[in-house]
Amino acid sequence: MPDSDLYEELKKLRRGRGVDRPGLSRYIGPETRRRCRLGPGDKESRVRAAVVAMLSGLAAGLAPDLRRAAELAFGLDREFRLATLADRESRLADLQTVSVRTARRRMNDALAAMAVAGEDVPAAPEDPAAGSGWRVSSLRALFRLDTCTPELYEMRTITATREIDEITIRIGLPEAPAGVGAAEVDALFGARISAVEQRNGGSSQKVVLRLPERMLPGDTHELWLRVVLPPGQPTWSHYAIVPLDPCESGVVRVRFGDRRPAEVWLIDEVPYTDLREPPEKRALIEPSALGEVMREFHGLREGYGYGLAWTPPAPVRSTPPIR
Length: 323
Hints:
single chain, 323 residues, alpha+beta, six-stranded mixed beta sheet, three-stranded antiparallel beta sheet, disordered C terminus
């Protein structure tokens, strides 16, 4: 087992209700705070969103069985929010048709692998309040589902919190079948792609963007990204803005074209961990004549999702020939 402070902190973090426990900030240690770039005054919602994002990132590169073990161990998904770690071990055993002992061993293996992966995270800046050095003050997104493969356009207005000349963004997608390529990322204006790191078999990417000039604290800048998904890449049936810092405004537009789903509904201030769960009561939205839905948001809170969701499209069934 790894002999590190991060390993011991993660081991304690998965106890009880995991990331779903009340007052989560009291249960995370200094190494976790460093990797999440959390300051002493951060709100609980931001702490939870940052910890879930960190754990999801560390688990992303694991084998599928260990990744599922990690998701259950920490209670990352809503369906795994059980009261104790022992309850989640039993659930994993049922899901993977193994003994509880084997399920516990897989959770331990996942924990060890995540701790090792976490050692590669660079040190935080000297000023914890500066965080990553920037925040998104406005984001306008267009998600096209009427193209050959889905395309995403995101225009960000960022504000520097310290001197920076580059930023890093992450593109997360569901796990793709073997043989599916990586998404194509292009900076249409406002930045130049200097590095792309494939993760989770290519489904997820870390993109480093070089800015045209150094930004000072308080400076704002606009940049526009285009992401084209490869054939065969699955997508989630929602698109949401989830800020890690307060965000002044956001616009989400989804263009379905002729491929309209049965239902489209609003995501408005939904906790990050609940985004994949359709609510029992939802505000349905009728697409326009062009098959588009657009909503604006203001005063976005950190750790919550804002956007649109829809029912997954039904599988295409071919009509058997008449004989």
